[in-house]
Amino acid sequence: MVLQVQTSTYEAKTQEIAKQLLAATQENRSFFSSLRDQMRWDDKLLAWAMSNPGLRVQLFRFIDTLPALHSKSEIASHLQEYLGDESVELPAALKGMLNFANPDSVPGQVAATTVGTAVETLAHKYISGENIKQVIKTVERLRKEKMAFTIDLLGEAVITEAEAQSYLERYLELMQQLVEASKNWSAIPAIDEADGEAIPKVQVSVKLTAFYSQFDPLDAKGSEERVSDRIRTLLRRAKELGAAVHFDMEQYAYKDITLSILKKLLLEEEFRQRTDIGITIQAYLRDSEQDVKDVISWLKERGYPLTIRLVKGAYWDQETIKAAQKHWKQPVYNDKAATDANFETITQLLLENYQYVYSAIGSHNVRSHSRAIAIAESLNVPRRRFELQVLYGMGDKVAKALVDRGYRVRVYCPYGELLPGMAYLIRRLLENTANSSFLRQNLENRPIEELLAPPIVKEEKNSLTPNSSLQTPNSSLQTPNSHFLGAADTDYAEEEVRKKTAQAFQNVRQQLGKTYLPLINGEYVNTPEFVDSLNPSNFSEVIGKVGLISVEQAEQAMQAAKAAFPGWKKTPAKQRADILRKAGDLLEERRAELSVWIVLEVGKPVKEADGEVSEAIDFCRYYADEIERLDEGVNYDIAGETNRYIYQPRGIAVVISPWNFPLAIACGMTVAALVSGNCTLLKPAETSSVITAKLTEILIEAGFPKGVFQYVPGKGSQVGAYLVNHPDTHVIAFTGSQEVGCRIYAEAATLKPGQKHMKRVIAEMGGKNAIIVDESADLDQAVVGVVQSAFGYSGQKCSAASRVIVLQPIYDAFVQRLVEATKSLNIGEAELASTQVGPVIDANARDRIREYIEKGKAEAQLALELPSPEQGYFIGPVIFSEVSPNAVISQQEIFGPVLAVIRVKDFQEALAVANGTNYALTGGLYSRTPSHIQQAQTEFEVGNLYINRNITGAIVGRQPFGGFKLSGVGSKAGGPDYLLQFLEPRAVTENIQRQGFAPIEGAE
Fold first, then answer.
1. pLDDT tens digits, residue range 326-382?
2. 515: number of Cβ within 10 Å
3. Disulfide: which of 277, 647, 831, 953 matches 983 by Cβ 3.0-4.6 Å?
4. From the CB of residue 161, how many other CB atoms can be counted at a distance below 10 Å?
């Protein structure tokens, strides 16, 4: 069904104005076509990108890499690697240019120079200058053409507090210099005044998130405090200078908190009467119309107008992909026409409220501008309250035509070094070359009726769920569960969710200190010994008292399991799977509360605790699907004979779970054993036994029968060893240290009296995980990824990065930014929303990590050691530089926030160093060199390799997790062969001939 956007009273006028504007912009069109053959290289690159999707992708990837390439031979070899890809059909001119044998050869150098210059020329089209001097020249030229301006500072992503402070200082300096220059500008009535009111000649556009490096909606209060201080400084200075300030809008995650901060700040007495400030609304967001209505209501209350700049939005690809990956609702319209229609709706809304709001309509679509003019003229909107905006280098002809009609036009001018400006350039190139782009359609001689037609909105079938096309695995060899959709993490950008979390903390705090007993044969039983589980952020706080079973009680549990096994084995797989799905639903229902228990008992920050609950839910749902798949077995029938390949449970499983993922790993190992038909005993780590008691409550409520699942907390050295050595144990699933894992493996291999089977051991035993950063890496991305991978949950993940191997050319620059970014992290109690680095698990861990830090000081340079709070088991992040690949801190697993940065001369050495430990769990690579990425995929010895992203946070059914060498034995958790370890395969063959007769399918 197609919903036609209401053709309103403004339509006829819109068409009339649009045709006039289009005629003015199209005068030179035939001339453009005749010039196409003699175009410069930068124009050729754009034209090719428009006509060839494969080339477009590779070309833009190459342009993204260009700033990191420092020599012509590097540029030449990357050109060949990107554009020589088999997927790319090259135009003849480009093919000829890339046909060199050696990047150092003269043809290679020529190719590098030609393309390098073309990209630089392209960048200069969209970037108004590399320094303030060039920008002043640009804006003076614009003013001669009767156009106003707003300046946006391009730069590296703000990932350190030093950069956030520098961002503020650079804007103060920019305003100062522009205002100084403006004293020599003659007044231009068309842009400097309206309705008898002066309009500031200087305007700057800023990004709110760049004022605080740890800006995060979860920490709404902390982010607001830190950002508001810097914004006040900026606004005060702007007032002294007489400059206007406009706030840009960025990613959707920051939208609500950005609007909330600005609304609060601009109601303060000092700023309430200011009208020289603006905010931005993005029409591609589904909730943008409601946002505008809310802002207008707020402006009525404020009593003084502000500018709202309306734009389509620049992060469409990023937003759709993020929502699909997170299983969140799509925040943006999936259809360009829907965005255009919404843009027109909001344009009308703004202009109809002109007494409360100044409208700035930003677009390169002639229809969008014409619509705004038609409405403004029909309503007699005063000129002060309405202007049109374009991006520098994007809508030059449209802008000129609008100026000629007497409208105020403002040009959005980004400025900065071309290097950090590449991300901006690529967004502009994507926009210019997209099939749906007005500028492109206009160049392609589309009929005027088509170009100016009202947007027709197709009804979206599935607008509130992630884009299905973005979730389909791109593989002809799909695993049986390739369409598995995981649980969605909590989106803390939503205020309601943050309130719910705060409420969950209150509820859980009222339950602290309770006693949790073991569950044996369906009964909670008393124990001779109890242990207090403490909050590692504040060890005076007892989370709960846990009863530890004796060896005698362990034997009772074993006998109960043995008795329950025959019945559980016969329970149909579908029934077992449904109990598991019920458990997954209960985990989802109690998500907020379970997250809080994780935060308080093991000191994991809120967001990471929430991700852990998602993982536990995913294990339940994924393994439920998997057992149903495996239960179908395989038929290998031939004429006269049936052959069935089937699975049966092994018997009794002992699960020994760790404290660092107390819910997810305990749940994953346990439910895998249970759903496969095994009776299961769960022995958790002592420091996280309250969370496993909560898991126990859920598994019992879901419907696991007595004796089938038992919760048996106890001392590892006594109860754990007893269960491992028990002759009735069939499977041992363990996650923990290499030392304990190897001991379990050895003990399980010994045949005990009365034992009639070999035990199966599944053991995950940690890693010494490395991230390689090569000279082509995006340093913004690499620094952020390394910081998250090394210091997330204080480095206490099996997958955490404890080594980063950096190539010589960028080593010093990388270490400097890494240190600054780490310094900017907030260290504190895990429950505080601002915390990125919480405590380590207990006093033993703290003391052991401190010993490693002392060893590090003796064998490497200390680049950073951050102080930490006293009241909990805290250790501030520590970075060592110039570390030898064979140093103790490079070889041994530390399991804390300690990072060794190793310098290497080339990529070959980097791989050798990465592979030079006893472990092979996770590894990472930051690189934009295709051959390096290819080589790492084959030669980097790790179970999970992550390229150009952080190396923690594996997702069930997407990144099955586990390693080899001394990192573990067994298959990957959350993968298609994990359950096979809990099952025995059998083949059953039946001869179906009787007296030479056998049923033949299809015969009458």
1. 999 999 999 899 999 999 999 999 999 999 999 999 998 999 999 999 999 999 999
2. 13
3. 647
4. 17
User: For the CA atoms of the chain, what is the radius of gyration?
Assistant: 32
Nearest partner of 234 among 181, 294, 277, judged by Cα: 277
Best CA proximity match to 716, nearest among 769, 759, 658 = 658
* Structure tokens that stand for 511 in this block: 């339950």
Question: Pairing relation of β-strands 409-415 and 386-391?
Answer: parallel
Cβ pair 633, 994 in contact under 8 A: no
Do the Cβ atoms of 872 and 645 come closer than 8 Å? no
Burial class of residue 290 in the structure, from the number of CB atoms within 10 Å of its CB (0-12 exposed, 13-18 middle, 19+ buried): exposed
Pairing of strands 983-991, 641-649: antiparallel
Cβ neighbours, 10 Å, residue 193:
15
pLDDT above 50 for 815: yes
What does residue 984 show for φ and ψ, rounded to 5 degrees?
-105, 130
pLDDT at residue 40, as a whole number: 72
**Kind of pairing between the strands at 519-520 and 523-524:** antiparallel
Supply the pLDDT for residue 121. 85
Residues belonging to the active site:
764, 798
819: tokens are 């240190």
The two tokens of residue 182 are 């403006």
Question: To which residue do tokens 């050691």 refer?
Answer: 865
Using DSSP, state whether 639 is helix, strand or coil. Answer: coil
* Per-residue pLDDT reduced to its tens digit, 871-903: 899 999 999 999 999 999 999 999 999 999 999
Q: Average per-residue pLDDT in the chain?
A: 92
In angstroms, the CA 696 to CA 682 distance is 9
Q: Do 415 and 127 meet the contact criterion of CB atoms below 8 Å apart?
A: yes
| C-alpha separations of 670 from 577, 589, 871, 950 in Å | 13, 20, 35, 28
Residue linked to tokens 């522009």: 178
φ, ψ dihedrals at 621, nearest 5°? -75, -40
CA distance 844 to 899: 20
User: Does 431 or 68 have the greater pLDDT score?
Assistant: 68
Q: What is the DSSP string of 216-274?
A: -GGGHHHHHHHHHHHHHHHHHHHHHHT-EEEEE---GGGHHHHHHHHHHHTTSTTTTT-
Among candidates 140, 957, 1000, 802, which has minimal Cα distance to 480? 957
Residue 573 near residue 677, CB atoms below 8 Å: yes
Task: Report the C-alpha gap between 216 and 222 in whole angstroms.
Answer: 9
